[in-house]
Structure formats: C-alpha cells, structure tokens
Design goal:
Shape: globular
Strand order of the largest sheet: 1-4
Radius of gyration: 16 Å
Structural class: mainly alpha
Order of helices and strands: HHEEHEHEHHH
Strand content: 5-15%
Number of strands: 4
Number of helices: 7
Length: 158
C-alpha cells in the first residue's frame, strides 16, 4: 500500500507476523499514528503491476510506478475492518518507535537493521506514504477487506 509498491500499509508481513496477537488478544501494533490515513495495496496488486511492466516490451529503463490500492485507510480503519471480517473485536495499539526498535533487536534483528526499520516507521508517521497523488492508473483493485477475508482470516482461524 505504498507508492512504488510497498505492500499493505505496515506491510502484509507486519500484520501476518502479528496473527497470534490478533487471534489471542484482538490487537495489532505499529509505530505509526492510528488515525493517519494512507494508501493501502495488496502485494498481489504490486506483483500484477510488475508483471505487466515485465511483459510490456515498449517499457524500458528505470522509474517509479505508484501502486496505491483502491483506498486510503488508517490503522484504526483497519482494526474496524478486521473486527468485521473476523467477527471479533480487534484494536490498533500505537507503539513508540523506540520500543519498536528495541523489540526488533530483542528478536534478533541487527542494530543497524532495527534502526533502519525505526527510521522508516518515523518517515511513514510523517506522511511518507502520502507522497504520490492518487490517479486512476495508480489505483489497484484489491481492498483491505478482501485481503482480510482471503489472507488474514484463514491465518487467524488456523
């Protein structure tokens, strides 16, 4: 859900690695403000855009291709949608960026990588994901609700 293809806001991986917390506690965590709306796109949409470029023999060179998904959502919006899809309350919990970084290093990430992730979270909290304007060409089809129904729900129910 990021310009040039960053996956779901916070990353599909970031949500999927929190499946246990969503399942057992009804909560997910991010070091970004809960009310900040930003583009949301699914990895499959990024893959489809990339495949289209690879198959387009008229395209060459380098450049950014915005992949913004169909909607801008906040983490609070995502929690509401997750609650509806999962049929149980799910809430978003803001985590300070320092705690986020410390958790990453406790789980085995190098200091440099954890700092890079913390810096990226800070940039996202400052609006990085809203840098590209939404256009019809940058809007892709998979909604967050659809992703929750097809990917998150089976993972939580497993």
């Amino acid at each position: 859900m990021h310009p040039a293809g960053g996956g779901l806001r916070g990353g599909e991986y970031a949500l999927l690695r929190q499946v246990e917390a969503i399942r057992s506690q009804g909560v997910f965590f991010q070091p970004v403000a809960g009310d900040l709306k930003a583009p949301t796109c699914a990895t499959r949409d990024i893959a489809a855009v990339a495949a289209g470029l690879l198959l387009d023999h008229s395209w060459s060179g380098q450049g950014e291709v915005p992949v913004l998904g169909p909607e801008d959502l906040s983490f609070e919006d995502m929690a509401r949608i997750m609650s509806e899809v999962l049929g149980k309350p799910v809430r978003f919990q803001y985590v300070p960026v320092e705690s986020f970084r410390d958790t990453l290093t406790r789980r085995g990430m190098s200091e440099a990588m954890a700092q890079g992730m913390a810096d990226m979270a800070t940039a996202k909290d400052r609006g990085l994901d809203n840098a590209e304007p939404r256009t019809p060409g940058a809007t892709t089809p998979t909604t967050f609700r659809q992703w929750c129904e097809e990917i998150l729900k089976p993972a939580v129910l497993a």
